[in-house]
Amino acid sequence: MRPNTWIAATALTLMLAGGILATTLAAERQRIEPLPLEGDRFTQAWFLNSFLILGEDLAAATAEGKRFAIFWDQRGCPYCMETHRVNLAEPDVNDYIRQRFNIVQLDMFGARSVTDIDGEVLTEKELARKYGITYTPTIQFFPESHDKLGGKKGRGLEVARMPGYFRPFHFLTMFEYVHERAYERETFQRYVRAKSDRFKAEGKDVNGL
What we know:
By secondary structure, the protein is of the alpha+beta class. It has seven helices and eight strands; from the N terminus they run αββαβααβββαββαα.
């Protein structure tokens, strides 16, 4: 083989190898794997490692310019797994939420001690009962600061709730709804319908997330 031919062949091989590597890296980028917990539970690396003093967690989120939410799950919950393995595995979904929300994960039947926003100390299980958490996953969203609490307690503190598993489009849209404080002007149903109509008008697939 002539030198020039050998150089060209080598360059082509390196280009192909680089393309394969880039494709592989892109494929890896397509998923964000959750971290396993005991009892067939999963979590995200960026979820808060909290002392479970929820008033402090809310204040910390406010100081960071983020919103505070609680993610409720339980052992062996298939839709909790789906939330991690499907919804939060999407980089765009994961990045949007991670950059704008601080999330504490609680076990609906857990025994850890939690200090609620109003100062009451309860186990996770007792707190779940106080907030009316009856199935998982459930995500509670709270006001952007203590100033917005208005002396409310229990479920009255929430600005929005994700009651059960939402498919990726609706899942991300709920976080957008809270981040934009759209709950101050309209229901989630109207908000998600308007977004869905925009997607359809632009030729986008709402199941493409």
